[in-house]
């Protein structure tokens, strides 16, 4: 079974991944600041938006996020890394700790990963809850040829395929 799912844009793929993991009135965890599109996706899906600020060093506050997930019953976490507004790539060990410490789906937008130090693509088979979304239109300069892909374990890809015509 394949671990890759293609789409027109990374935003479309994030929206699809969020849609198959939530239903209206579920909670979504977002990091602030981050891309506005995540808020638009959440509003379009009629989700309750939970936010967690980055630390003063622009890193994930793992304990605060985990506490929020448990307290508010968040169904999905979405953020970018490299982090779009700050140009800071979140610490790999923090992202992996978050994936390890919760079963909540974790969608990481790596549309600017070519400007970072690492990618989580090679980690998706180790975590059932980890999904990575990449884009060809940023660093590859293919803005006129919008194309993106999502990488996750085969089970998650099958769920996407069952819910969307490809």
Describe the overall structure.
Helix 1 crosses helix 2. A seven-stranded mixed beta sheet has the order 1-7-6-5-4-2-3, sandwiched between helices. The longest helix has 12 residues, at 10-21. The radius of gyration is 15 Å and the shape is globular. The protein is α/β, with parallel strands linked by helices and 166 residues long. It has helices at residues 10-21, 36-44, 62-72, 92-101, 154-163; strands spanning 4-7, 27-32, 48-53, 74-80, 106-109, 130-135, 148-151. It has five helices and seven strands, in the order βαβαβαβαβββα. The protein has a single domain (4-163), classed as 3-Layer(aba) Sandwich (Aspartate Aminotransferase, domain 2), CATH 3.40.640.10. Helix 2 (36-44) links the parallel strand 2 and strand 3 (48-53). The protein starts with a strand and ends with a helix.
Write the layout of secondary structure elements.
Elements lengths: L3 E4 L2 H12 L5 E6 L3 H9 L3 E6 L8 H11 L1 E7 L11 H10 L4 E4 L20 E6 L12 E4 L2 H10 L3
Parallel strand pairs: 2-3, 2-4, 4-5, 5-6
Antiparallel strand pairs: 1-7, 6-7
Helix pairs in contact: 1-2
